[in-house]
Amino acid sequence: MKKWMALTAAAMLLGGSLGQPAHAAPASEADAKEAGAPEQRRAAYGQLSLMTGLDWEQIAALDQYERTLRKARPKARPKLGSWAGLYASPEQWSGATNPDPSDRNPDSIRFFGGIGRDGDGDGKADPSSDIDLLYAQASAVARFGGTADDFSIGVWEFYHNQRAVQRVNQFTLLYRTFGRLDLDGSAFPVPVGTDYSYRSTWGTARGWGGHRTHEGTDIFAGHGLPVRSTCYGVIENMGWNAYGGWRIGIRDLDNRYHYYAHLSGFDKSLRSGMTVEPGRTLGWVGSSGYGKPGTSGKFPPHLHYGIYRDRGMIEWAFDPYPLLRQWEKAEAKAKKARRGR
């Protein structure tokens, strides 16, 4: 009874904090643009934290991971609610043995082992409700306990994928470090206005180590020019790679892996597992790679910048050149505006 009263009270708070019933359509085009805005999502995560015992950052991370999967596979994972990320098939939601795949009764869904839950207190487990979607996922993970290890076990049981556990924990760390949801800022990987050059080299042939294609953009610059983080992210890899030399890899909240290679060295304060923000110095342009640790000078100094998207089970590279042009122009415009003040 106490649990139900807490759930009901939280649902009432959700309705008040979000400004409209969970199932209501946005009242206008302006409201539609605001659907899923950080303020709305943050309020929902906070109230669902009261309902499940998970931290709001953990609920946000679960939702964000689902949002990235939908972005990577939009046809296979269509949107169910207005903004919540979770996708569940009718069988997953209502239960694989449920004779009614469109069942919305929370009791019968639970009986048949479905994940559907009533989070907004309207008596229905409705997959078109953002709050029901969030509550279904968070409560499934939370049933394993409240410690960090329990949370990881819950994520594993939900996805049966260690990659998902790593991503959700990385996203949680980012939200805890910066304390907000709007972590989509960016920076060009070397200081704009310095002496560098680059062009689109995506897909060109490479011969060292066997035939392969170039998965990135080379930014040629003087040895020692600072290399900066392009995003808010978590350092996933640091060290030597036979192809990339001294390299660093950073995972962002969009589940993209940013790869910086051929560095002359790293900022000594950095460690794997740390968070970084856009513009943070990671290391310096060099010419390391194409050999055993310490090999350098087999090509002119430059930064190889690559970017990869995680599809849940595999990662694939895509051409970073358009993003680099976008970030460079935005930073140049911001610098010009500051000078004009």
Automatic annotation (TrEMBL):
Alphabetized SUPFAM superfamilies for the sequence: Duplicated hybrid motif (SSF51261)
Stretch forming the signal peptide: 1-24
Domain (M23ase beta-sheet core) ranges: 213-311
Residue segments, region Disordered: 20-41, 91-126
Pfam families, alphabetized: Peptidase_M23
Compositionally biased tracts (Low complexity): 20-29
Feature: compositional bias, Polar residues: 91-100
The keyword Amino-acid biosynthesis appears for this protein: no
Gene Ontology MF terms in the entry: metalloendopeptidase activity
Name of this protein: Cell wall endopeptidase, family M23/M37
Organism of derivation: Paenibacillus pasadenensis
